[in-house]
Amino acid sequence: MRRVVLYEGFERFWHWAQALLIITMMLTGFEVRGLGLHLFGFQRAVALHNILAVTLLVLIVFAIFWHVTTGEWRQYIPTRKFLREMIAFYVTGIFKGAPHPVRKHRMAKLNPLQRLAYFGFKVLIIPVQVTSGALYYYYPNLQHTLGWPPASLWVIAVVHVLGAFGLVAFLIGHVYLTTTGHTPLTNIKAMLTGWEELEDDAYFDET
User: Fold this and answer.
1) Which of 153, 167, 147, 192 is closest to 53 using CA atoms?
2) In the chain, at which end, N or C, are there fewer CB atoms within 10 A of the end residue's CB?
């Protein structure tokens, strides 16, 4: 085993800041929609939700810049190699003590299933939420200038709520996957400290 820095400082900051922003936005968003939460009060929840949305957009811009300049964007390129093996591992193998089909590497931190999940998160869920949220916020202006019918607001709201439930599903799956390391807290500790122990022959063939 060898101990290496798997997650850089900005990567850890970006990960936890994004998690905190998304969780808080879900809480405020569900309260605004009247889904049984009463934590902030309606007006405060609306204001906080909007502030958090802008903060998340700023964080996303910095994260995109970091991923592009460091080449870390390659970590999220989907691959079918070992995909079936990973599905089988998560469905049954992990409960039988089967070995992990894919080993982490500095240039391959995510297994094929995680890559697909993050790819969907980054290119589908987040863009849908950002777009529908912006349309919802600026709807009065759009209705005034473009003459959008009132029914379009309902469509935008439904899309935004469905995207929020998509975020909840991703978060639940993500938290579950963090417990599948050598110990239930191994992956969480690595994302806090940046350090993780990898086997000397750890590799990932991306060809």
Assistant:
1) 167
2) C
